[in-house]
Amino acid sequence: MGSLLAGVAHELNNPLAIVMGRASLLEEKCEGTPELQGDARRIREAAERCGRIVRTFLNMARAKPAERRNVQLNDLARAAADMLAYTFRSHGIELQLELAADLPEVSADADQIGQVVLNLLVNAQQALASAPAEGVRRVKLASGIEARRSNREPRVWLRVADSGPGVPPALHEKIFEPFFTTKPEGIGTGLGGPSRARWCVITAASSAWRSAPPARSSA
């Protein structure tokens, strides 16, 4: 798996560099046209995020430790939601943010955790887009902090939940396996959702778990 990830990362680097360079030039040429310049900036920022994803793949292949710093989970959540806002609107899906005020910072790799949030939101959107349109289609992105317990310090949490069909109980044990996916061929790889989330979150010295009843998303 390490060799595969390293190979994929290498093949993506060159086209990503071209996209980032052209987007930067386009951003400069659109000066004076705020709407077009904003579109070009979002293309560049998305390409830069893809570049960070590629580096994360390489880190996975090389088992490189996370680059920790103090990060605000709410900022990562808002950035992911902003990046996918148009996609959600175009599919008629409501994206609801319930982020706790005054959330303390946590020590984590911002790129890794941000990508986990983005992947979970994409999974939720794809699950709802392919499900029968019955009732309100909604994805909720929420954050908060646990009450203090006698046996441990309070923990900050971030949760993605959707109103989709959920993952069948028979598949619960497989959703963290690399390359496992329930999506059609050409859409899911099994590397972007729970399997990668597990790697990133464990690297951040935390934990990932399933909720019951069936988790509200598709792998």
Automatic annotation (TrEMBL):
Residue span(s) of domain Histidine kinase = 7-191
Protein species of origin: Piscinibacter aquaticus
The upper taxonomy is: Bacteria, Pseudomonadati, Pseudomonadota, Betaproteobacteria, Burkholderiales
State if RNA-binding is listed as a keyword: no
EC number(s) given by UniProt: 2.7.13.3
Q: Which reaction does it catalyse?
A: ATP + protein L-histidine = ADP + protein N-phospho-L-histidine
Pfam families, per database record: HATPase_c, HisKA
Q: Would the keyword ATP-binding be found if you checked this record's keyword annotation?
A: yes
Checking SUPFAM superfamilies in the record gives: ATPase domain of HSP90 chaperone/DNA topoisomerase II/histidine kinase (SSF55874), Homodimeric domain of signal transducing histidine kinase (SSF47384)
Protein's recorded name: histidine kinase
- Molecular-function annotations in GO: ATP binding; phosphorelay sensor kinase activity
The enzyme's first-digit EC class, named in words, is transferase
